[in-house]
């Protein structure tokens, strides 16, 4: 089976980390996010991934010049302009001939890290004779997502995009993994932006052609600072991951943290519940608590980062400065 992976967005929720690189090229532990996604697809029988590219496509083509990622063959489809989710799927599918194939194909959001068993999703799709089948996952607050109530046979009864939390009919939301028949591509209008969540899926519901599989498999939308931080801390705990090539002063405290290669932590500094990027320097007495620091940054002596502050690549935080839930540089400035 082949898969389209949507990686064309600007990653605005993760700025300033994404000011100069796509979010799927941000590191998760010891490798880019896209390698976690491609590795999961490969482990589930996918042998070719089509990357639907838009923002900074050269970041992917330069990183994988041999056309392979995590053991999976890569192909590229670069949008001439932003086409939204369905538009991107249509463009990528037509670019590589998925719209003319005899078999369904997968579509995956490139910022989702999961261990969903894709075979179960495909089996339901075939058993129901569906035109499209989507994976669902339960969340505490469904208001940020598309809520999907289903019938006893898995047929989707409605597709409610980002409802008010109090009025949401369910906490089962669109998990960003789809099985689509080639016929779905023909449903997507050409020449304009089209949302699969707001246009294509509701049209499939109206025709009784959309099904869904509820799954409690591990699932994280890693597209926000909070989830980008939490998924790494969780993966580090579950896998026993340990940093390599770091220099931590004996008097420093490092707890529940992910330190990339080349990080230096000075005397008396504290790094707790945080992610620190490659070749970054945490100077003496600085505190990094529940925050994210990008690559090649410097956190000056005695500075404090807390409450999910995010510092971008190559930024210098002055000695003694205190950041509380701040973004540096400020993407809105």
Structure description:
This protein has 333 residues and is of the alpha/beta class. It has 2 domains: 2-221, Spore Coat Polysaccharide Biosynthesis Protein SpsA, Chain A; 242-328, Hexapeptide repeat proteins (UDP N-Acetylglucosamine Acyltransferase, domain 1, 3 Solenoid), CATH 2.160.10.10. It is 22% helix and 29% strand. The chain contains 7 helices and 29 strands. The strands form 7 sheets. Strands 5-6-4-1-7-12-9-13 form an 8-stranded mixed sheet, with helices on both faces. The protein has a 5-stranded parallel sheet with strand order 15-18-21-24-27, with no helix packed on it. It has a 5-stranded parallel sheet with strand order 16-19-22-25-28, with no helix packed on it. Helix 3 packs across helix 6. The longest helix is centred in the last third of the chain and has 15 residues, at 225-239. It is elongated, with a radius of gyration of 21 Å. The mean pLDDT is 94.
